[in-house]
């Protein structure tokens, strides 16, 4: 029997690592030996609150969805030539049949099965099985951590695509967490001038080490009282008041994408500003068709993760990995390395 340790959330604030038999890949699936998994804010949220919106943890749940690994086994119909390949795992497997899937917007598939989203187990484990269509070979020059961080990078790519970011745009990114810092780097690659805002000095320092020098200290002035004028807003704080204010910095004809998820299901918007400036406003939900570009951006050395990855933990220390960002905000993206 191949031993498979899996770190499960058994109740709020309690993770248990259990050793089980490794899963058997089904049709068109691979068995993947996990090498690196990023700890996401959503993992921390499930750990602390046991639910996110309508997703409630009702049975022990393996957390972790930002995963990379090596293909070690193939189920019926999966190409055995890929065994041994290092891969980035796209965590959401959509149904492939509904209208959203068929029109390419598979991130909106109502039947998507997304790792570490109840009741689907995640990747804080030695092994997972995953659809062959949603694992992507990565070149040797990508580290395991970069391969795993194709997931938050994908959120940044999708936000920029949805905002239609073009060369020369002034893009305001509110929030220098992992998502904001990925979105900002993508905006720069799309040719934009990037302005970043955060309240925490160490988060702005991380942005500075990524080469951004147009930084707004949100503790000294609210973003709409700072003189910033932007063509595009990529809101990545999840703070309702920030979205409300940051939309007001947009120039007429500006575009806003709300990435950050506020705890409140409803929030106030500056409707008169949105109308008089004809602001285009949209939410974004995860991403679709982004992994090839994420891998290419890492391959070309255009996206940096060193100032973002804060600390590394074994699977047995997963609880510490889930707690560290609350204790030390300079640890932006903790990684779990099961190997
Ligand atoms: N829409 C999606 O598909 C999607 C996907 C992934 C994450 N998210 C959401 O994106 C958001 C960002 O994720 P993250 O992992 O980077 O979170 P994070 O909490 O690490 O980052 C948020 C950042 O916002 C900063 N911030 C707080 N108040 C601020 C203020 N008033 N002004 C400026 N900055 C402020 C914080 O200091 C922090 O650095 C979260 O709300 C997350 O739930 C959405
Ligand atoms: Zn994530
Ligand atoms: Zn579907």
TrEMBL record:
- Give yes or no: UniProt keyword Transcription: no
Alcohol dehydrogenase-like C-terminal domain segment(s): 178-299
Quick check: keyword S-adenosyl-L-methionine in the entry? no
Q: Which cofactor does it need?
A: Zn(2+)
Q: Where are the transmembrane segments?
A: none
Superkingdom to which the source organism belongs: Bacteria
A Pfam family that the UniProt record links to this protein = ADH_N
Q: Which UniProt keywords apply?
A: Metal-binding, Oxidoreductase, Zinc
Residue ranges of domain Alcohol dehydrogenase-like N-terminal in the record: 28-140
Family annotation (SUPFAM superfamilies): GroES-like (SSF50129), NAD(P)-binding Rossmann-fold domains (SSF51735)
**Belongs to which family?**
Belongs to the zinc-containing alcohol dehydrogenase family.
- Annotated protein name in UniProt: NAD(P)-dependent alcohol dehydrogenase
